[in-house]
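[audit] Reproducing an earlier prediction to check determinism. Same input, same settings, fresh worker. If the tokens differ from the archived copy the diff job will pick it up downstream; this log only records the rerun itself.
[audit] input (171 residues):
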Amino acid sequence: MTARIVLYMILASTLSFGGFVDSLFSDEKPQTPDKVLIVKSERKLYLLKDGKEIASYHIALGKEPIGKKTREGDMKTPEGNYTLDYKKKNSSFFRAIHISYPAKRDRLNALKNGVPPGGAIMIHGQPNGWGWASIILQRFDWTEGCVALSDGDMEEIWESVKVGTPVEIRK
């Protein structure tokens, strides 16, 4: 046996936990979720299909995650029902999917309080070039209000979630 074949066999046996290798060679496409659910208190993002969980991911949130986003710069991740309205390939982060914040109710609330509502709330991976640091960065809330994942998790979400998918963000 060549060293390359032995290396592939070792790699395959090492990575076979959880069916990972099987999924690499499967013709079966992942299910397309019809809803994204983010539960801030759990630090979880769930992909749902027909009301059933098809995948879940650990997330990091805004630096001040407790409570609803009320204004630009409050470092909070919004709460409510929104839409994933576009994918941004050329982002400062590994992939980014925009959340339709601020909704009309968010703009009206900010106007009533005389503050800007903020915006540019995304689901994204790690800062470009820092994917290796997710083992550290994902242990605490570090964004300015976005939802952050490891680059590998973000790649899965990018591939499976379609623009126009509803997203619910709960406390």
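[audit] rerun output stored. Observation attached for the diff report: The two ends are 55 Å apart (CA to CA).
[audit] end
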